[in-house]
Design goal:
Elements lengths: L1 H4 L4 H13 L4 E4 L1 H7 L8 E4 L3 H7 L3 E5 L4 E6 L2 E7 L1 E3 L11 E3 L2 H6 L9 E3 L4 E3 L4 H6 L2 E2 L5 H7 L3 H12 L2 E2 L1 H9 L9 H12 L4 H10 L3 H4 L1 H12 L9 H12 L5 H19 L5 H7 L4 H13 L9 H11 L1 H14 L4 H14 L13 H6 L6 H15 L6 H21 L14
Parallel strand pairs: 2-5, 10-11
Antiparallel strand pairs: 1-2, 1-8, 3-4, 4-5, 6-7, 8-9
Helix pairs in contact: 8-10, 8-11, 11-14, 14-15, 14-19, 15-17, 15-19, 16-17, 18-19, 18-20, 18-22
């Protein structure tokens, strides 16, 4: 347990345990901190289990918060750090699928048996430097197995959120879900809506940002949870498949898993969430089904800021086409900034492989111009130049200006003189085609710069 003792939280947690023991009570480190220590993972928080009544805890410690007093939990504050201290308990009947109607105070063994997964039901006795395991949690950790405490169906009937927590721990720990646990989750997937959407979305965020998101999302899909959590998307997908359109941009959920995994190096939960929804955005752009991504995200109880940032990204997807050349990448940096462009390139690469040369150019370009927005150079030619050459205003003028500017950004036109020479040749080619064949839009012509 050396990694636990090296945690900056350890001295404060030990102080709480020592104070409880000095007052005649038992105090054990409980749950995730013990599990993570056995896995060599630093503790993010440390919970303490005790036989002290909540009222006694409040008397022993000068700074407490009674947020869960009804269930035997008191938050003890030490140097502005919160520690949950909970009395050993046995839960009563769960009628709402989330919380017990009442609790009975008990002992460490009964307390372990009321917890969700065996790996979360371990205790550490500081005084004797001993791990206490009533549920074979150590063996499950050693074998990389996620197993419910006792009967899996009973654990889920008690608290439906354990469905999502199970998937999250698969991703967080990289463990395999035991078959009976998977069967129970799949059997009760229909009941997940009994849990608030806020809690479901919070767990899903953690799944996307976990150590093994592909593994977790695969279980999520196999257990039938996609159709439960994302009902609207699933209905549109099923309608598409029924219409014979299942190959549009490949299977979006499969692409989502790959892109979420690829987003991990960014270390940004917005990137991870947007990466999950991006394949659906490509697909629904074609299907013209999703009216407002912002409204959809809000219905899933994402925050306004999260919904706005993700929708902003989705809005830019319409400009991503295959192939994505360097001129487009350069424009993206200038118009969207570094963060949105990096995410755009990442998501585009999940659908269409990017040219490695363009990726390298983009990286070098960002290093030169970040962190601020990039100023695009002034165009070598303008609409006035085209009008001077006899072209009237219209679509062809805009197409030629865009084509010329792309060539300029790709360094295929080095100055205004080169651009004007290119323009003269281009116009002559268009006129020749107009005279010999039917008029062709400038975008349909292929022109190579000498």
């Amino acid at each position: 347990m050396e990694i636990l003792k090296k945690s900056p939280l350890w001295p404060k947690a030990k102080y709480i345990c020592d104070q409880l023991k000095e007052n005649g009570y038992t105090a054990l480190i409980a749950g995730g901190a013990v599990r993570d220590a056995l896995l060599g993972i630093p503790a993010k928080d440390i919970d303490i289990a005790t036989d002290a009544p909540p009222e006694s805890i409040e008397k022993i410690f000068p700074n407490t918060i009674s947020v869960g007093k009804l269930f035997g939990t008191i938050v003890v504050v030490v140097d502005d750090q919160n520690f949950e201290v909970t009395r050993f308990r046995k839960d009563g009947e769960y009628k709402d699928g989330r919380r017990p109607e009442k609790v009975e105070y008990s002992n460490p063994e009964e307390d372990a048996k009321r917890r969700d997964f065996t790996v979360n039901a371990l205790f550490y006795d500081i005084t004797n430097d001993q791990i206490i395991d009533y549920v074979d949690g150590i063996a499950d950790i050693e074998q990389g197995r996620l197993r419910f405490v006792g009967d899996a169906l009973s654990r889920i009937r008690e608290d439906k959120l354990r469905i999502m927590r199970g998937i999250r721990f698969v991703g967080q720990l990289g463990f395999e879900l035991e078959q009976s646990a998977f069967d129970a989750i799949k059997s009760y997937s229909y009941a997940l809506p009994q849990v608030s959407q806020e809690r479901i979305t919070d767990e899903f965020k953690k799944i996307l940002f976990s150590k093994k998101p592909i593994q977790a999302l695969s279980v999520f899909e196999s257990a039938g949870l996609f159709s439960v959590v994302f009902t609207e998307l699933n209905q549109i997908w099923e309608k598409s498949v029924a219409g014979g359109n299942e190959t549009i941009y490949r299977d979006p959920f499969t692409m989502s898993k790959l892109m979420v995994n690829a987003a991990k190096p960014f270390g940004n939960h917005i990137f991870s969430m947007a990466s999950f929804f991006t394949p659906f955005a490509f697909w629904l752009k074609e299907m013209k089904q999703m009216k407002s991504w912002n409204s959809y995200f809000m219905s899933l109880k994402y925050s306004k800021a999260e919904a706005a940032r993700m929708e902003n990204f989705m809005r830019h997807l319409n400009s991503l086409t295959e192939p994505l050349d360097f001129s487009t990448i350069k424009r993206m940096f200038a118009e969207r900034g570094g963060e949105l462009t990096r995410l755009s390139l990442h998501c585009h690469d999940g659908i269409f492989p990017l040219d490695p040369e363009n990726v390298l150019k983009a990286k070098n370009y960002e290093e030169r111009f970040s962190p601020g927005l990039i100023d695009l150079p002034r165009a070598f030619i303008t609409g006035k130049d085209l009008l001077a050459m006899g072209l009237m205003k219209g679509k062809i003028v805009g197409n030629l200006l865009d084509e010329a500017f792309d060539l300029q950004l790709n360094a295929k036109l080095s100055n205004r003189q080169d651009a004007l020479q290119w323009l003269e040749k281009r116009i002559e080619e268009i006129k020749a085609i107009d005279e010999g064949k039917e008029a062709t839009d400038a975008n349909q012509l292929e022109f190579k710069v000498d």
